[in-house]
């Protein structure tokens, strides 16, 4: 028979206590990693698909106003919005991002459907019209752009009929961004929804047969038209204004659907499910959806269109003119399914 001595019991108790202490330390370290170091060294982490030249000043203003440090991860021009959407999908089991600032809404709506976003209906959400936000509070839009034809006025008259005529026949002097990404994907989704797959595919293939120039992004479209290499391009209002401010001979005409609707593409903001910095994330969302941020982006060189109420005397004349077109906006939330179907087709065809 084996007898336990008091010394043996004490040794076992000491070992057990040491193990418990080690476990407690490990748990504390893991918690500290999740809260302070995951993704941003303790900073609020934002993934941002909007151009850094316009968005970084807004985020730094937030830091100054709140004292909350922010780490920003920007998207590449060639993979606008889709790159970060797919990154967030890959990180869903171990999220590194707290807030996603997308430069459009359909990718954000996709993340909502994948249950990656947290609902939040703060002060910013309340001022945005119903058309431009998720009813459940998972995301809200702000500071919109319009989809437009950019025209080199040395080559084509700044009139809708002249533009449509330029899109007949040879298209070697017409440019469009690769439709896998950014706002061009939104444009394709709108056509897919309105026309159906067969007509969209036929239209796409016809444009390529006639020689349309497909380039990496909207900025490249703008550059080709601004320099006179192309006569017409499909892009957004912020890129048009970049060319106009550079003194290039350009004008713009809004793209219209067959219904007469225009394609108004807001930025969108959402809180990522699993954030360890929820209160700071809420503050950033309210800041981005505020009137002051919308005015800041409207008065920037990108001339983005406020969606919530603002003091109109603070807005540039070009922005006031575009606000009138917002009333004709094509609803984008219903296009989520069309966007997914169209994107699957684009990927399967390995579109250039």
Short description:
With 352 residues, this protein is of the alpha/beta class. Helices cover 46% and strands 16% of the residues.
Structural features, described:
The structure is a single chain. The protein has helices at residues 6-37, 52-66, 82-90, 106-113, 123-127, 160-166, 182-195, 197-209, 218-226, 237-245, 278-288, 291-298, 317-326, 336-348, and strands at 44-48, 70-74, 99-102, 117-118, 140-152, 174-177, 213-215, 232-236, 250-254, 264-272. The chain is α/β, with parallel strands linked by helices and 352 residues long. It folds into two domains: 44-143 and 266-321, Periplasmic binding protein-like II (D-Maltodextrin-Binding Protein, domain 2), CATH 3.40.190; 145-254, 3-Layer(aba) Sandwich (D-Maltodextrin-Binding Protein, domain 2), CATH 3.40.190. It is globular and about 85 Å long. The chain starts with 5 loop residues before the first helix and ends with a helix. 45% of the residues are buried. The model is unreliable at 24-40 (pLDDT under 50).
Which labels suit this protein?
ten-stranded mixed β-sheet; alpha/beta; 352 residues; D-Maltodextrin-Binding Protein, domain 2; globular
Question: Layout of SSEs?
Answer:
Blueprint: H1 6-37, E1 44-48, H2 52-66, E2 70-74, H3 82-90, E3 99-102, H4 106-113, E4 117-118, H5 123-127, E5 140-152, H6 160-166, E6 174-177, H7 182-195, H8 197-209, E7 213-215, H9 218-226, E8 232-236, H10 237-245, E9 250-254, E10 264-272, H11 278-288, H12 291-298, H13 317-326, H14 336-348
Parallel strand pairs: 1-2, 1-3, 6-7, 6-8
Antiparallel strand pairs: 3-10, 4-10, 5-8, 5-9, 5-10
